[in-house]
Design brief:
By secondary structure, the chain is mainly alpha-helical. It is built from five helices and no strands.
């Protein structure tokens, strides 16, 4: 009995020391209705039961949105929305930056996921005139 009490106490202590609890990834996040959903998927820790699916979904969403943007931009001959530096950051670097940026820009979290992602890209990688 004492072992169970110690385990519970240790767990509660760890939760208190780690700061505010973050919401666990849920199947609802896969609907990606908001930037918050996308950030939650992208930031899912490896210990989460949905980690593999969440991270793969995040990467697939980001790559798909980016590729669509590139094709649409070329087709319309529009001015680039953002410009990657050389060398271009890796996918994982860009996603890590997106998560960090989103944590500092809570105003975008309730916007559509694609809007949040491209607001990040535009803010982080502006085109120089």
């Amino acid at each position: 009995m004492m072992d169970k009490v110690l385990i519970v106490a240790a767990g509660l202590t760890a939760m208190c020391l780690s700061g505010p609890a973050e919401a666990a990834t849920s199947e609802t996040n896969f609907q990606v209705k908001t930037t918050r959903d996308l950030v939650t998927l992208c930031a899912t820790p490896p210990s989460d039961p949905l980690a593999t699916a969440a991270v793969n979904f995040c990467e697939g969403f980001a790559v798909g949105a980016y590729q669509y943007h590139v094709v649409a931009e070329a087709a319309t001959k529009a001015k680039p929305l953002f410009c990657f530096p050389s060398p271009t950051p890796s996918r994982n670097e860009a996603i890590t930056q997106f998560i960090a940026w989103s944590n500092q820009h809570s105003d975008v979290l309730d916007r559509p996921a694609v809007e949040g992602m491209f607001t990040f890209l535009k803010d982080r990688y502006p085109c120089r005139s």
